[in-house]
Amino acid sequence: MSATAAAKAAAVPYSEKERLFSAVKADLRFEDYLYGCYECGICVAVCPSARFYDFSPRRIAQAVAREDVELVWEQMNGEIWECSQCFSCLKCPRKNNPGGIVTIMREVAVRNGLHSAQQALEGYSRIIYKIMSTGTQVSPDMIRPEAFPDWGPTARETAENLEVWRRAMPPETMHTTSTSWEVDDRTLTELYLIWHLTGVLDMIKTLDESLHMILVDVMEEKLEEAGYPLS
Ligand code: SF4
Ligand code: SF4
User: Fold this and answer.
1) What is the pLDDT of residues 139-174, one digit of tens each?
2) For residue 97, which of 33, 69, 106, 223 is within the disulfide window of CB 3.0 to 4.6 Å?
3) Per-residue pLDDT reduced to its tens digit, 115-124
4) Which protein residues are within 6 Å of ligand 2, measured from CB?
């Protein structure tokens, strides 16, 4: 943690850190994800993030198992964002799920608008917008040569002939370049409903108000038609 971040963390009252830790423990999945820790390090040996970052699934499991409120707080403001959520750590002989604990910690960080969550996700707003507004993932029209210089001539050839490539694919739902595939209206409404009713839209609001406003703009009409007005 940097000196500035450490100073900010010290300014947060212990009761607030405790409240967030309680929220982690109160999650329904928590008791299935932690059974204690042998400190064997097997999770570290299989963890790809531990190879490339100052990150350790063992440290996560131990901090939580020891109920170390300060360390858990520190982790929620930093290292949990280094986990790649691959779940190789399920190899744990104690049946722990350190990656799952990280998932819960991230969700609590997002729900409570922690700065670390805002920082970790700020680069993804375009992708979140794309996925949530169209119901599908990064689109082929994002393949621009200037964005993928390491692809050499392949990116240019692909970008120039996108229409042709997409038409060559058998399913009609893929004959588009602005989305990966076409999502029909009914499915899109169902997705909007899920994001609204499960609180995902509210989570976005705590992180990025402008993105939330744009998404509300896109979803409002369909949600209203489905009988779930946003206001
Ligand atoms: S889920 Fe996270 S902690 Fe577990 S092995 Fe993958 S990167 Fe490591
Ligand atoms: S593999 Fe399981 S028991 Fe071993 S250090 Fe990791 S969390 Fe602890």
Assistant:
1) 888 888 888 888 888 888 888 999 999 999 999 888
2) 33
3) 999 888 888 8
4) 37-43, 57-58, 61, 92, 94, 96, 98
* Ligand found nearest the CA of 50: 1
CA atoms within 13 A on the CB side of 35: 9
Strand, coil or helix: 152? coil
90 Cα nearest atom in ligand 1: 4
Q: Work out the percent of the chain whose per-residue pLDDT is above 70.
A: 96
Q: What is the CATH number of domain 3-112?
A: 1.10.1060
Ligand 1: atom nearest CA of 88 is 5
- Sequence ranges of the domains in the chain: 3-112, 120-135+183-225, 140-174
pLDDT for the residue 5: 54
Q: CA-based Rg of the chain, rounded to a whole angstrom?
A: 21
Q: Give the pTM.
A: 0.78
